[in-house]
Each structure stands twice: as structure tokens, then as C-alpha cells.
Design goal:
Domain Raptor N-terminal CASPase-like: 1-115
Structural class: alpha+beta
Helix content: 25-40%
Strand content: 15-25%
Family: Belongs to the WD repeat RAPTOR family.
Keywords: Repeat, WD repeat
Shape: elongated
Largest sheet: 4 strands, mixed
Distance between the termini: 103 Å
GO molecular function, one term: protein-macromolecule adaptor activity
Number of helices: 35
Number of strands: 36
InterPro entries: ARM-like (IPR011989), ARM-type_fold (IPR016024), Raptor (IPR004083), Raptor_N (IPR029347), WD40/YVTN_repeat-like_dom_sf (IPR015943), WD40_repeat_dom_sf (IPR036322), WD40_rpt (IPR001680)
Radius of gyration: 40 Å
Length: 1223
């Protein structure tokens, strides 16, 4: 071939080869150019490319080596001499971004010159190394291979025709060279981009192998830059890895900038060689017969299997799976796609680190493209994969909407074939798409998401009742996020009657669902009340009325759950009331101001509607019992005015100064505010409200004044919530309507309370999704017993402490890096000022719920096995000891084997012995709790139940005794607080808190709550100075019954059966005793009044040990003990005069036939079940034989014959039988 022809042919081939890798680019060839031609070429290319990357390929085979300064050689016009071109000129013409390929000997000198140039420039202003990539054929001291085994331009061949180069090089080293004709390699059939042909398959495998090597060897950011940002750069670098492998075999080292670690010996090349061999072995038959069927290589199937093996044994702490880039390549093929997606889903489920790895490989565009497929079997796994991606990285929402991906998820959510939990994932994905993303909200409104969500909330079709709540929860959250700060969506939601659809969800058994429904209702309340800002005309009046009607129904619904058992729900109600308060600030301020007026006559009158509030679910005979009562003294008396009573929602007992208005809504008695609101209001007091200032653009119309009263009442209830976090939210809501001084502070050193002037801190950050929150039912596995024990150990409640952090007041910002889902404070709140906005409490249910999806959803938790093993051990221990207790013959418990000074100034109020460890917990009147180990005689922990102790602790109970037990502390004001880790010094955490008693009788100054817990049923029974017994389900965190006590007097003692779930007995102030069974429709089984001689209140009551359902021991303050068989006899079958008056405590052993009673007259007496005296304890067994203090509490160990006794002095003792040694 003539030299000129050869030159043109080389140029044309090179251009064609590059076109194969990037067909959209424009290529220009300069054959044997001059300096001017190169300059013109560079300038033209840069001008055309603008800010795109320019490729400069230098083929220096007909000119000398580059100079030591890194100049390359060109020609003069007449081709009579070589002209050097410095790289600085080249760089200044081509600028960045650029990529240079230098195929000549000593190419390394050019790279070195570039490096020096850029080092020198880096100090100046022209830092053109910003984005310049260099590929050179060899090091500065090396010459290109001269062997006939390689073409002269071996580097260019590797970069532009990698498959042929790789096969030819492999051929010479393989056993096939004896049986296969070398020339066939140039005739490989097929097209590179058709994976169903031999050439396409080889190209596909080569891409997968080189990608895998690069991903496993390179730092992730470099991999992203070289292999994922630009098609041509990625192709060149893949082929560069091959060039390194081939040329190193000829003692030549290609180099690059950025520099890559050596990859020529990576073991994935062996997989390539094997695939190449399998494909080459088919080559002769395919060339011979063009119609012959091509057999695909098993390469991808094998690599997927390797990935599957890794999934079975790998973890975050092991080396990442090197097959990840191959899994990505497999997604391109229909035949392997489903398996690859399932394995990818399993991998992503391992945790956020796995999602991070997958995103670094470049999974995103692949799974985005797959949303355009309609294959039904891929739908579920794709929704799962997107759930996992969005749980980690919310920013993907933009691309999803841009590509119309949201419609895929709306269709999936609307389809009834999928399981509810999978549809919940689709709802989650949509919630993330619209979260704080206006374009996403608009797209989803357009696609009809509002109606899809409301349709499924209105009539959910239960496929599987277990997972249904998750779907309802996410439908609410998705809708809430769609409506958040989006006026158009709010109007559509109200038109579709969303409030009426949400309201019933506030009664659902799952706290998460109730909280989500409250959140969704809150988003329908318009902050600032300026929906009509687009020019309100007369025609908008009717809409305005409708909007107000909607607001009334929303607020009424929310007020019904202001005393919900779950802090999570109450938090959402507080946030909703804050939104409402912003919109109706003036009217609420006026109402609040009239409450706070010091004149005594206006106090009662300004509570117009409270007389008609009924407590939810309870049947009160006459509503007038609920007239708010306050002992109001004329304010002239001075600073000792006593206001209100000690109810949770009433001001704490303290000093109210005359100079300032009352610090709290002292005259308001909380009761669950039901929808049954009265329409009567005392217009006399509230008339002046309407005229108060205007707000924003449109003035919200005053709603019914009674409703405003309810709201202020509810806000005060929240401000005194037993949970510190909710109380803080409540105080912030009150500050919106201008009430700053809310909390109460200690008056005396022991810590009772009075008014406190602390304005709420506006910086309460939202709670991060703590790891301990959404362990929905980890470990909720009730065990079946092999032998029926007398008192079977019970299932766990509040399992896994799914809401542990709902009360931890932690300054964790919502958009903290670990929470994945950034959450702007409030989006755009129109015209709210910055300071007001900082006070605005934030909803936490959405961020918290998102945490569920970043946890593993496919695998069960590893620790369930340990839990089961420990549970079985404890059951075994319990059964053995129950048998021992039943057959014990107790003579006397004289052996005091442990005692210590509690340091309680007022003595011990109540105590508890742990069943499976030698630990005792005791509490005093100031709600100070102390935990001791009575074997090692040391104090384990001591803490305050809360900051404003009132009248002491009424009862301590153990929740989930077979597992990591929780300590339930019931205060005398009816507040329940549940603690975990209470035995670890300073580590105790408040799990949940709520007020168990709501609404009380007029004139009652103290609630004297009486509480008991029943593990089998998960019920908490609570009563006191109220006319009903509240029945709470702790798993649902919900009040499920309010049983009328049908008695004029209040409950003074209560005991839940440890054997028969749902059974409990109550003793009353008038000496009567009643047996209840919540499983029966009428609840009350029978009633009797055994204590008739001296009518004094029942102090202690308990069930007999054993399985008999109606046998009860009751003790009255007068000192008589009655043995009752409630189901068979009206009267007591046995009476003992245990003490002459002042009986203070009664304890009946759970399993042993022994009863203990204590007296204020410094004596403990023991009896058998037949009433025979077993002995008494009067003295401490010391040398001085000092008398014991007046007994204040007694409790038995559940499975051993041990008696703990507390007295009004600081001494606490544990007694055992003479022949029993405590273990």
C-alpha cells in the first residue's frame, strides 16, 4: 500500500474505532500535521465542545521520541524538518476538560511535563489541571514493544479494539492455539452492542470484568469520576486496564493521570480468560454456519451465584461483595434481570452501608430506567429497592419526578394484588418524593395521588391483618406530606372530605397509625389562615364557611386524643394545636386572657362549655359531676391563694402571687375532651374577642367560643404532660397564644412545686430516627408451656420498646447526617416571622417512621434466639420455684437477712422485689426511686421519677418480667411512667408516660390513684377519686374501657389476678369489695360489702394463690381481714381480727400459702390461708432489739418465700424463713 494511502487508512480506522465507543461525538483527523494545523484544530474543537471534554489522540510512530522537556514532534509545511510542540502550548489551546492519549515511546516524559506544568500553574491562577486526564503508552524510559506478536500501535489497539486484542493475546497463551485458526478472531460474528451475538456477549463480559476490577481496586470517588461520568472516558479506562495487562507482559508499563494502582494480576482476569475460552471454542462452528445457535456463556449466572453465596455469609464488617458491578451489568439482560434484582434487594436490605455501596457502583440510572418497564413480576422488587434507596438518600426525589417515576408507584399503591406491606413501601416512596419538594407535590397531585390515598383509607381491603396498619400509617403520612404547606392540595383534600376519613383512624389500636392520622389532620389546618390570599372576592365567602366547618371538625377530632396513652400521638396533637393557634391567635389569646384575669368572679364563668364535656368512652350518669371546681379565695388574702387541685391538668399545689395573673390554668380540670361539645357559651365574657386585631391577608372567622375554650384547656393539659418532651411542646404551644410562664418550680427542699417562670426554649430539635424506635414487635413471641404452671409467664408488652425515644429529649436535628432524611424546618410558612417560626413545634412521626425502612426488612433480628433461650431459662426457674412455694410449710419469717437505710426522709411508700435477680426497687413520697442489690448489699441506682414530685408513688410494677423488664411507676396523681435500664446507674430511660386517670369528682383535692398491672392481658387498671375504673391496653397505649364503679365512693385498693387475664378486684372507701371481669359484657361479676363492723376503707386486697378465680383476701383500715369466695358466697367465709385498728398494708404471696399484714403500730403479722397465725415480726434482730417502724408497705417475692417491708422510718428490711437461705 502506498504510504499516503496507508496514512489515510490508519486515520480513518482510528476515527471509526472511536465512533464505536462514542457515536455522538465529532471526530477530526489530522495526518502528519504542522504546528499551525494543530493549533487551529485544538481551538476549533474547544470552540465546538464548549464545556464538554475534548479528546486529543497523538499517534507518534513516525516521529522521534518526545524531548526530555516533554515536547512532541510535528512537521514544518514542506515536511523537511521536525518542529517541537511544548505541552504548555497544547494545554493553553485545548484547555479543560480534556483527555489526552499519547501512543509513542517514552510517552511518560509528556505526562511528567504536564505534571510539572500543572504544579507550576497550581500556585498561579491558571489551575488547568482541574479536569485533565492523560493516558500514555509507557514510562519515560521505556520503548514500545518491537515484537511481531503485537501490532506497532499496541496501545491504541488495546484502547480502541479491546476484544480483538484481548482474544489474540489470550489465543497465543491458550491451548486453543493448536485447534483454532488464528485468522478466525478477525471474523467474530455479531455486533458489539447486541448482547445476543458472540461479539456482543464478549464485549458485555469484558465490560463487567473491567468495571469489577476498577470498582474493587480504585477509591470510590476516583471510580465515579473515571468510570461513571463520561461514556468515552469510561470506555478508554476499561480498555486501559487491558492495555496494562497486555503491555506489561512485554515489559512496558502504560501510565495514566490520575494514576491507577496496578490491576494486571487481578483474579477477575481469570474469569475473563475462562469466558473468552468458552466463546472462542464456539467460533469455528459459528463462522461456518451463520445460522447456528450461539450458546451464551455461563459467566453471569456463575457470578450471580457467587454474589448469592456472599449474601449468605457476608456482613458490613467483611470485605464488600466484588460482584456488585456485575450484578449491575446483569440488570441489562432480561433473562437474568429478575434474579439480579432479588439479590440486589437482599443486599440493600443489609443496611444503609449496602445502599451506599450500591449507589457508588452506579445502580441509580439502571433502576430509574427499569421504572419504565411494565413487567408485572418486577414491580414488587423494584418498589422494595426504591424504598431502600430513598430511606438513605432523599435527594433522588428530583430525578424520580423528572423521569415520571412517581406514576409507577402511584399505580402500584392503587393495585390491590400487592401485599399491604409492599403497598406501604410505595406510599413511603411517594411520601419521600413529595417531602419538601414542590415539583414532586405538583406532579403527584396531577397524577391523582390524593384520591388514591383517600380511597384506600376509606375502605382498606384487608389481605393480611398483620401488615395492614403499616399501610394505613403510610397512606396518612404520604397524604400529610403531600398536603404540607401546599394550599392547592389542602383545598383538594378538604373537598374530598379528608377530615371525616382521618377521624376514625384516631381510634385505631396502633399508636403509629393514630399519630400518623393526627399528623395528616394537622396538615389540613392552614397556618396563618390565609388560604384566600389570591384575591378574596365575595364568591369565596362560602368556601370560607366550609373551611371553618372543616377546621372545627379537625380540631374536635384532635381534641379527642389529647389524652392518648401514647406520647407519640400527643406530640402530633400538640403540633396540630400549634398550627391552629397560629391561625386563630387573636381569639385564643382573648380567651386565654379571660381565664387568666385575677378577678375571682370571671374565672368560672369564662369556662362556658366545660360542664358538658364527657370523658371519652365512659358512662357518667350526670354530667354535672364535671362542673369545673376550684376553691377560689379572694385575691386580697395574699400570696397563699390555693388554686385548683392536684389533678394532672391542674396547677400543681403551690404559691400563686397576686401581682401577676395566674401562672397556669389552675381552674381547669382535665378530662378527655370529646367531640360532644356544648354549643352554649357565655357571651358576656367573650364578646370582646371578635373585635381583636386582624391577621395576615384574610381574618379567620372566630369559631365557636366553646371550641376555643376546649383548645386552651387542651394546651394546658399538654403543658403539664407527664412526658417531659410533650410538656415542652405544650408550653411552646401556649407561648404562641401569649402564655409564657407555665411550668412550676420547687417550693420546698423536698421538691414539691409552685409556679415557675421559665419561657419554653424554642430550640427543641426534632427527634432523630433512633435505632430503638421501630423494633415493631421484636421479641413479641408468647411462649407455649409444656406443663401448665399455676401462673403462666406472660407475653411482653410495649415490646422492643418501639417508642423508647419518643420521650428522650435529645437535641438531635432532623437533618443530622445519620438520619438520612433531611427535613427543612417548616418549608415555607408564608408570612410567619422568624422568631415565631422558631417556636413552631415540629412533627416527628414522619422522620421516626422512615427509620423502619432503613432497618433490615427481610431478615429477622439475630438476638431473638438469645431472648428465647433466656426466656426458657426463666420459665424453668419460675416453674421449679412455684412448685417449691406451693409445697412450702412456712413457720415464721423471722430471719431478717437484709436491711439498709433507704435515706428516704418520709419512709418507703411502695416496693418491688425482682423475680429473677436479687434486686429490690423502692420509692418514697417525693417520687424518689432507689434500686438495691440485696445480696451484695449495694445501691445500684437512684433517680427522680420526675421533676415536680407531688404526693408520692402509688405503686411499682414490673412489665415483661421474663425479658428485659421495664419498671412501671404509678404516681398518686394517676400519671404513669415506664422506665427501662433502671438498674444501671444514671442510665435509666423514660420509655413512655401518660395520665391514667382523667376527670375526677368535684371538691376532690387529691386523686389518690390506685393502679395495678396484669401481664397476661397487657392491661393496666387505674382508679382513685373518680367514679370509674380506667382500663388501659399498654400494647396499644390506649384507654379501651372506662368501667363505671357504680358506687358513690372511690376505689381505695385494687388487685389484678395473675392467673386469669382480664380479672381484677377492687376495694372501696366504704368497705365494699367488687370483682370485675373485663371479658364479660357487664364487666362487674359480683359485689359485696364484708367490712361492716367498723366501716373503714379497704387498705389491701388480693387474690388467693392458686387457680381458683373468685377467692379474695381483703383487709380494712380497722384491722379486720375477710376471706371471700366471691362467686359462691355473698359473705366472708372467714374473718380475722388481725390488728386493732391502723392496718396499713396487706400482701398475699403469689404461690405460697402465706399472707402478711402490717400495722402503723410497728408490727407485721403472718397468717396461713386458713387464717392461722404463723407468727409476727415486731423487733429488729439487733442487740438492742429495737422495734420496727410503723409499717407502710409489704411485698412478697413472686417465686420465693421472701417478704420485703418498708416503714415510715428510713429502714427497709427483707425477711426469710429460718430454714430458707436466699440464693
Amino acid at each position: 500500500m502506498a504510504p499516503q494511502k496507508a496514512l489515510e487508512s490508519i486515520g480513518k480506522n482510528l476515527s471509526n474505532q472511536y465512533e464505536r465507543w462514542q457515536p455522538k461525538a465529532r471526530y477530526k483527523v489530522q495526518l502528519d500535521p504542522t504546528v499551525d494545523e494543530v493549533k487551529k484544530l485544538c481551538n476549533t474543537c474547544r470552540k465546538y465542545a464548549k464545556s464538554e471534554r475534548v479528546l486529543f489522540h497523538y499517534n507518534g510512530h513516525g516521529v522521534p521520541k518526545p524531548t526530555a522537556n516533554g515536547e512532541i514532534w510535528l512537521f514544518n509545511k514542506s515536511y523537511t524538518q521536525y518542529i517541537p510542540l511544548p505541552v504548555s502550548d497544547l494545554d493553553s489551546w485545548l484547555r479543560t476538560p480534556s483527555i489526552y492519549v499519547f501512543d509513542c515511546s517514552a510517552a511518560g516524559t509528556i505526562v511528567n511535563a504536564f505534571m510539572e506544568l500543572h504544579d507550576w500553574n497550581a500556585s498561579g491562577s491558571a489551575g488547568s489541571m482541574r479536569d485533565c486526564i492523560l493516558l500514555a503508552a509507557c514510562e519515560a524510559h521505556e520503548t514500545l514493544p518491537q515484537s511481531d506478536e503485537f501490532p506497532a500501535d499496541v496501545f491504541t489497539s488495546c484502547l480502541t479494539t479491546p476484544i480483538k486484542m484481548a482474544l489474540k493475546w489470550f489465543y497465543k497463551r491458550s491451548l486453543l492455539r493448536d485447534s483454532l485458526d488464528y485468522s478466525l478472531i478477525d471474523k467474530i460474528p455479531g455486533r458489539q452492542n447486541d448482547r445476543k451475538t458472540l461479539l456482543g456477549e464478549l464485549n458485555w463480559i469484558f465490560t463487567a470484568v473491567t468495571d469489577t476490577i476498577a470498582w474493587n481496586v480504585l477509591p470510590h470517588d476516583l471510580f465515579q469520576r473515571l468510570f461513571r461520568q463520561d461514556l468515552l472516558v469510561a470506555s478508554l479506562f476499561r480498555n486501559f486496564l487491558l492495555a496494562e495487562r497486555i503491555m506489561r507482559s512485554a515489559n512496558c508499563s502504560p501510565i495514566s493521570h490520575p494514576m491507577l494502582p496496578p490491576t494486571h494480576q487481578h483474579h477477575m482476569w481469570d474469569a475473563w480468560d475462562m469466558a473468552a475460552e468458552i466463546c472462542l471454542s464456539q467460533l469455528p462452528s459459528l463462522v461456518e454456519d451463520p445460522n447456528a445457535e450461539f450458546q451464551p456463556s455461563p459467566f453471569f449466572t456463575e457470578q450471580l451465584t457467587a454474589f448469592e453465596v456472599w449474601l449468605d455469609h457476608g456482613s458490613e464488617h467483611k470485605k464488600p461483595p466484588e460482584q456488585l458491578p456485575i450484578v449491575l451489568q446483569v440488570l441489562l439482560s432480561q433473562c437474568h434481570r429478575f434474579r439480579a434484582l432479588v439479590l440486589l434487594g437482599r443486599f440493600l436490605d443489609m443496611g444503609p452501608w449496602a445502599v451506599d455501596l450500591a449507589l457508588s457502583v452506579g445502580i441509580f440510572p439502571y433502576v430509574l430506567k427499569l421504572l419504565q418497564t411494565t413487567t408485572p413480576e418486577l414491580r414488587q422488587i423494584l418498589v422494595f429497592i426504591w424504598t431502600k434507596i430513598l430511606a438513605l438518600d432523599k435527594s433522588c426525589q428530583v430525578d424520580l419526578v423528572k423521569d415520571g417515576g412517581h406514576t409507577y408507584f402511584i399505580r402500584f399503591l392503587d393495585s390491590l394484588e400487592a401485599y399491604p406491606e409492599q403497598r406501604a413501601m410505595a406510599a413511603f416512596v411517594l411520601a419521600v418524593i413529595v417531602d419538601g419538594h414542590r415539583r414532586g407535590q405538583e406532579a403527584c397531585i396531577e397524577a391523582g395521588l390524593i384520591h388514591v390515598c383517600l380511597k384506600h383509607l376509606r375502605g382498606p381491603v384487608p389481605n393480611d391483618s398483620q401488615t395492614e396498619p403499616l399501610l394505613i400509617q403510610w397512606l396518612c403520612l404520604c397524604l400529610g406530606k403531600l398536603l404540607e404547606d401546599c394550599t392547592e392540595a389542602q383545598i383538594q383534600g378538604l373537598q374530598a372530605d379528608a377530615p371525616a376519613i382521618y377521624a376514625p383512624l384516631l381510634l385505631e389500636p396502633q399508636p403509629e397509625v393514630r399519630a400518623s392520622a393526627a399528623f395528616a389532620l394537622a396538615t389540613l389546618l392552614d397556618v396563618g389562615g390565609d388560604v384566600c390570599r389570591d384575591g378574596a372576592t365575595g364568591g369565596d365567602e362560602c368556601d370560607d364557611d366550609e373551611k371553618i366547618r372543616a377546621e372545627i371538625s379537625i380540631v374536635r377530632s384532635l381534641l379527642s386524643v389529647v389524652s392518648d396513652g401514647s406520647p407519640m400521638v400527643r406530640a402530633e396533637v400538640a403540633v396540630a394545636l400549634a398550627r391552629f393557634a397560629f391561625g386563630h391567635k387573636q381569639h385564643l389569646k382573648s380567651i386565654a386572657a379571660s381565664y387568666w384575669k385575677p378577678q375571682s368572679n370571671s374565672l368560672l364563668n369564662s369556662l362556658p362549655s366545660l360542664a358538658h364535656i364527657k370523658a371519652t368512652g365512659s358512662a357518667y350518669a350526670n354530667p354535672s359531676q364535671y362542673v369545673p371546681h376550684a376553691s377560689i379565695v379572694s385575691s386580697q388574702i395574699g400570696p397563699l391563694t390555693r388554686v385548683g387541685s392536684d389533678n394532672l391538668s391542674v396547677v400543681r399545689d403551690g404559691r400563686v402571687s397576686t401581682s401577676s395573673p395566674l401562672a397556669t390554668a389552675g381552674i381547669m380540670h382535665g378530662s378527655p375532651l370529646s367531640d360532644d361539645l356544648s354549643q352554649h357559651s357565655d357571651s358576656g365574657v367573650l364578646n370582646d374577642i371578635v373585635s381583636n386585631g386582624t391577621m395576615h391577608h384574610s381574618r379567620p372567622k372566630p369559631l365557636d367560643n366553646a371550641l376555643y375554650s376546649q383548645c386552651v384547656l387542651a394546651m394546658c393539659t399538654l403543658a403539664k404532660d407527664p412526658s417531659p418532651r410533650i410538656a415542652s411542646l405544650g408550653r411552646r404551644v401556649l407561648s404562641i397564644i401569649g402564655i409564657e410562664q407555665v411550668v412550676t418550680k420547687s417550693v420546698n427542699s423536698t421538691g414539691s412545686s409552685g409556679p415557675k417562670t421559665s419561657s419554653p426554649t424554642p430550640s427543641l430539635a426534632g427527634l432523630a430516627r433512633s435505632s430503638s424506635w421501630f423494633d415493631m414487635h421484636a421479641g413479641h413471641i408468647p411462649l407455649t408451656f409444656r406443663t401448665p404452671p399455676v401462673s403462666p409467664p406472660q407475653p411482653s408488652y410495649l415490646t422492643g420498646m418501639r417508642r423508647v425515644c419518643s420521650l428522650e429529649f435529645r437535641p438531635h436535628l432532623m437533618n443530622s447526617p445519620d438520619s438520612g432524611l433531611a427535613d427543612p424546618l417548616l418549608g415555607s410558612v408564608g408570612s410567619l416571622g422568624g422568631t415565631e417560626r422558631s417556636l413552631f413545634p415540629q412533627s416527628t412521626i414522619y422522620n421516626w417512621s422512615c427509620g423502619h425502612f432503613s432497618k433490615p426488612l427481610l431478615s429477622t433480628m439475630d438476638d431473638t434466639k438469645e431472648i428465647l433461650v433466656r426466656r426458657e431459662e426463666r420459665e424453668k426457674f419460675a416453674l421449679e420455684h412455684i412448685a417449691m412455694c406451693q409445697h412450702t410449710s412456712v413457720s415464721n419469717l423471722n430471719n431478717r437477712f437484709a436491711s439498709w437505710d433507704t435515706k428516704f426522709e418520709t419512709g418507703t411508700k411502695t416496693a418491688l422485689l425482682q423475680p429473677f435477680s436479687p434486686i429490690v426497687v423502692a420509692a418514697d413520697e417525693n417520687e424518689r426511686i432507689r434500686v438495691w442489690n440485696y445480696e451484695e448489699r449495694n445501691l445500684l441506682n437512684g433517680f427522680d421519677n420526675h421533676d415536680f414530685p407531688d404526693k408520692g408513688v402509688s405503686k411499682l410494677c414490673l412489665v415483661n418480667e421474663l425479658d428485659d423488664s421495664l419498671l412501671l411507676v404509678a404516681s398518686l396523681d394517676g400519671n404513669i411512667r415506664i422506665w427501662k435500664d433502671y438498674t444501671l446507674k444514671g442510665k435509666q430511660k423514660l420509655v413512655t408516660a401518660f395520665s391514667s386517670i382523667q376527670g375526677h369528682k368535684p371538691g376532690v383535692r387529691s386523686l389518690n390513684a390506685v393502679v395495678d398491672w396484669q401481664q397476661q392481658s397487657g392491661y393496666l387498671y387505674a382508679s382513685g377519686e373518680i367514679s370509674s375504673i380506667m382500663l388501659w391496653d399498654l400494647d396499644k397505649e390506649q384507654l379501651i374501657h372506662s368501667i363505671p364503679s357504680s358506687s358513690d365512693c372511690s376505689v381505695s385498693a385494687m388487685s389484678a389476678s395473675q392467673v386469669h387475664a382480664g380479672q381484677f378486684t377492687a376495694g372501696f372507701v366504704d368497705g365494699s369489695v367488687k370483682l370485675y371481669d373485663v371479658r364479660t359484657p357487664e364487666m362487674l361479676v359480683c359485689a359485696t360489702r364484708p367490712h361492716t363492723e367498723n366501716v373503714e376503707k379497704v387498705v389491701g386486697i388480693d387474690f388467693h394463690p392458686g387457680l381458683e378465680p373468685g377467692k379474695i383476701v381483703s383487709a380494712s383500715q380497722a384491722g379486720d381481714m375477710k376471706f371471700l369466695d366471691m362467686r359462691n358466697y355473698r359473705d366472708a367465709y372467714l374473718t380475722i381480727k388481725a390488728h386493732r385498728g391502723s392496718l396499713t398494708a396487706l400482701a398475699v404471696h403469689r404461690h405460697a400459702p402465706i399472707i402478711a399484714s402490717g400495722s402503723a403500730k410497728q408490727m407485721i403479722k403472718l397468717f396461713s390461708l386458713n387464717g392461722e397465725p404463723l407468727g409476727s415480726i415486731r423487733y429488729h434482730l439487733t442487740i438492742m432489739a429495737q422495734k420496727i417502724g410503723p409499717v407502710s408497705c409489704l411485698t412478697f417475692h413472686p417465686y420465693q418465700v421472701l417478704l420485703a417491708a418498708g416503714a415510715t422510718d428510713a429502714l427497709f428490711s427483707i425477711y426469710a424463713d429460718d430454714n430458707t437461705q436466699a440464693r
